[in-house]
Amino acid sequence: MVLIGLPGCGKSTVGRQLAKRLNTAFQDTDAVITDRIGMPIRSFFEQEGEERFREIEHRVLAEFLDGGYQGVLATGGGIVLRDDNRECLRQARSVVYLRASPDDLVRRLRHDRQRPLLQVSDPLKRLRELYAVRDPLYRDVATFVIDTGRPSVSMLANLIATQLELDAANGRAC
Ligand SMILES: Nc1ncnc2c1ncn2[C@@H]1O[C@H](COP(=O)(O)OP(=O)(O)O)[C@@H](O)[C@H]1O
Ligand SMILES: O=C(O)C1=C[C@@H](OP(=O)(O)O)[C@@H](O)[C@H](O)C1
Q1: Model pTM?
Q2: Is the CATH number 3.40.50.300 carried by domain 2-165?
Q3: Domain boundaries, the chain
Q4: How many Cβ atoms sit within 10 Å of the Cβ of residue 15?
Q5: Which residues of this UniProt protein bind substrate (predicted)?
Q6: Ligand with minimal distance to 33 CA
Q7: 134 known ligand binder
Q8: Nearest CA among 139, 149, 62, 143 for reference residue 104
Q9: CA–CA distance, 2 with 4 (Å, rounded to integer)
Q10: Would you say the CB of residue 77 lies under 6 angstroms from ligand 2?
């Protein structure tokens, strides 16, 4: 199953807990990319540009999904920007959109210096722009949407696990 959503929505944090709860593997496309490029993503954006990053991100996503990866996969917030990535995601068995408001995200990420797109003078404005463009794209490929506003990380992991179990019990693949 794949987790999507804006930077800071909890794809890695919730994803790790969910994998434990489901007793399955956890992987993070950003971590795989970082290993592959041998530098932080922020440095890669500065040296090589976003477009090169998106190429590598596409290859990594396709490798996981074409390879039939069965665990929990956290993705980068921009994974839905490319048509071919959205096509890949539609073939995944479950895609969960962790929805978070720009206001919540800017609070969570106020000390972050790693996310290249948010190193701007007005990160709230940037997050609102990202939300406007991406929210419809996340919804387009999501199997279901979870609002992350109130619940804790462990509650969210339990909520998703329960939803996946219900889907499985109702005969829908998870
Ligand atoms: N539901 C939540 N409530 C409060 N803080 C959260 C929640 N989900 C994630 N966080 C915090 O927000 C930050 C970003 O989370 P992270 O999992 O790295 O996001 P992503 O992988 O989606 O970019 C971390 O400090 C994490 O602890
Ligand atoms: O939103 C984006 O376009 C990006 C989000 C980042 O991942 P997170 O969503 O884990 O921050 C990372 O993939 C890269 O900096 C680009």
Answers
A1: 0.97
A2: yes
A3: 2-165
A4: 27
A5: 30, 54, 77, 134
A6: 2
A7: yes
A8: 149
A9: 7
A10: yes
